[in-house]
Amino acid sequence: MHHGSISASNGVSPYIHNEPESPPVTVIIVNWNSLHFLLPCLESLYGGAITQPFEVIVVDNASTDGNLEELTARYPAISVIRNPTNRGFAGANNQAIRHSHGRYILLLNPDTVLFPGTIDALWRFLEANPGAAVAGPQLLDSRLLPLQSHSSFPGPHLLPRGLRAALTASFAIHQQNPDHTARRVDWVGGACMLIRRDALEQVGMLDESFFIYFEEADLCWRLRERGWDTHYVPQARVIHYQGGSAATAHDHDHIYLDGILLDEWARSADRFLCKHLPAWTPIAFRVLAALYTSLVLATWSAVFLIRPGARPKARRVIGAYLRFLGVLPFLRTPAGRRAIPKGRRSRGPARAQAARALRWLRERCSYPPATRSPGWTRLP
Length: 380
Known about the structure:
about 375 residues; alpha/beta; Spore Coat Polysaccharide Biosynthesis Protein SpsA, Chain A; 10-stranded mixed sheet; two-stranded antiparallel sheet; 14 strands; about 40% helix; globular
């Protein structure tokens, strides 16, 4: 089996030849400025998370937080792909999938710690359930409180949950009820998900038009369309330090709050709706997101006035959501905050303005075929 370092020139990886015997599991970790998380993650992986033979591929997306010499010295069996630019979560995972050999592929975030036997539990579940394509574990935060491990596909039915969160100022992403029941779900979180290779070959790899967020929901949607199931397996447990990589990106180019890049999340949600749901849903998403944001701003403004001790948090939330409100109309532009071109700012009748606005939004919901899910191109 191939080990060691692989360089990627201009994002294109060299070929790796298949070997006669493939391991049951390939573990893929995409790293971007998360070296301080990556080493504990690997320690837990090699510390009993799996007893089956496995291979590990780490894809480094042009990190600037140090080199990977310590990693390769401590774990020489790992294959490392070094990218000169940040290819995003989906693109980097696809890059590693093409180099993988396992019958099952585990996508794993670097900001995770695996409990002993976690991957074995997911592997046994997929082995025992041939109709299941994806298995995801129970995600816990650093205090071992439950995180959101799975969810329903985006749609109007999620509106009450969002409004309740806005009105109660409960934005802590870890406040979930314990869920110990294994069952079929719409999709599981991409922080840790085991995927059957045969199913992935049928539907294609991750859609690289999702730079970050919702790529796992898109994959599970496409698998559901082809008759495959996604399952939540709480017997497998993973600690997830939510937003480990995102925390390094809270600069003027992104809107960062509580482990989430709000602008990238909204952009990917918009892409998902454009791709899978009726044409009116992206417009409804913007309206509902603006309503949600207004409720958040009202709630946290009240918190700022009533609770002096919470003012630092309130300032962060209000500042982030004010910026987010300004981004919403421009999700289809590269930076997410480019002004509408002057030619679009007509002062004509309201009906004509509305028609132009609808056309402008629809134009940005059309994806060229090349940006859709790449087909399976296993390297020879």
